[in-house]
């Protein structure tokens, strides 16, 4: 029972991280539309979630920061769709394909971050890194890692194995001893 409560609490924490990531994104969208700055705590989150490079994030909220986040989210959605359809085309059912996508979210987010950095390098304009965009992207990485931990902690129920023994079928966890002795 304790492990169930722990799993439910960690699932709630993971959901909270994804909701906070969405909140940061919509806060950025609203700030760009109203041509104002995001709150200073969002910049602090962006600076705290830095990579292993010199902290040169700009405390600026503009269309380029939003465009950077939108490219990341678009690549993330497209990659999820591609992985889902590849799994589904292998003959795996829809629930198993969705579960596989959820299990590999963290790897996909890291791949999307890599692709986004390559796209930024290939653009002609000067390279800027924004703390507001990094806050959303960093929280997406943390949220997907928490989802990976949650799914590995809870698992996914598998179909019970069937064993043929002396002309009778034994289903692990379902066949009673009375049936075997009869």
What attributes characterize this protein structure?
mainly alpha, 182 residues, single chain, 2 strands
Question: Could you characterize what this model shows?
Answer:
The protein is mainly alpha-helical and 182 residues long. Strands 1-2 form a two-stranded antiparallel ribbon. The longest helix has 32 residues. The two termini are 35 Å apart.
**Estimated share of beta-strand residues:** under 5%
Count, helices: 7
Strand order of the largest sheet: 1-2
Unreliable spans are: none
What is the averaged pLDDT score?
85
Radius of gyration: 23 Å
Total number of β-strand segments?
Answer: 2
* Distance linking N and C termini: 35 Å
Tell me the overall shape.
elongated
What is the string of SSEs from the N terminus onward? HHHHHHEEH
Look at the helices and sheets and give the structural class. mainly alpha
Most strands sheet: 2 strands, antiparallel
Summarize the structure.
The protein is mainly alpha-helical and 182 residues long. Helix content is 69%, strand content 4%.
